[in-house]
Write a structure and sequence with these properties.
The protein is mostly helical and 192 residues long. It has helices at 22-41, 46-63, 72-89, 98-102, 115-132, 136-152, 161-166, 168-179, and strands at residues 8-10, 13-15, 182-185, 188-191. A hairpin with a 2-residue loop joins strand 3 and strand 4. Helix 1 runs antiparallel to helix 2, helix 5 crosses helix 6 and helix 5 (115-132) crosses helix 8 (168-179). The model has no long low-confidence stretch (mean pLDDT 82).
Length: 192
């Protein structure tokens, strides 16, 4: 018997029956911190270290996005680890401006963009797949989206802090609203 609060690993992601994603966050933070420390002490070249940060470290974090709806503060802490590793790869001081690290290389930055981009893309892809799914999943998702759009419309995020911590759909909707997108579902056009 496994209590509902005990994490178990499924396809490389720590899950709990009560849908608490904190064990996954803790495991990811611990793993990335250790890997950043190993990378810092590594004799690899700057280019090799940067490729490891962008492929391996970033991939390790984003893999869990499907099951772990991280908050902006949690994403920021994960972002800071990637930014630190990038700065260390270039042998720059850790207190260098983070904005410069996030800028594209073509604009004079280090090219270490924020994880919010990947999380937003992942959320939009999941929502789109669910909305376009045939059968019950598509029908239920559309109904839930309509209800949530009506309920969220006009409500400020500061009035829903507890709900935002636990409702992936509400955070997805708020992310979509920031992007000002239009989605085509069959003959129906939905402005998000």
């Amino acid at each position: 018997f496994l209590p509902p609060t005990s994490p178990f690993k499924h396809l490389g992601v720590l899950l709990t029956v009560d849908l608490n994603y904190k064990p996954q966050l803790t495991a990811t933070l611990t793993d990335i911190r250790a890997r950043v420390q190993h990378l810092r002490q590594s004799p690899l070249t700057t280019g090799q270290k940067q490729r490891i940060v962008e492929s391996s470290l970033r991939g390790s974090i984003t893999y869990g996005f499907v099951a772990s709806p991280y908050t902006p503060a949690e994403l920021k802490s994960l972002d800071s680890l990637l930014t630190r590793a990038t700065k260390q790869a270039y042998r720059l001081p850790v207190h260098m401006a983070t904005a410069a690290a996030h800028l594209d290389k073509s604009k004079g930055g280090l090219g270490c963009h924020s994880l919010e981009i990947e999380q937003t893309v992942c959320n939009i892809q999941r929502l789109t797949r669910s909305l376009n799914a045939p059968g019950a999943l598509g029908t239920i998702t559309k109904a839930m989206l309509d209800m949530q759009m009506q309920g969220v419309d006009g409500v400020m995020a500061k009035h829903l802090p507890h709900l935002l911590n636990h409702s992936l759909r509400v955070r997805q909707l708020l992310s979509l609203e920031k992007l000002d997108l239009t989605m085509q579902l069959g003959a129906t056009e939905i402005h998000l």
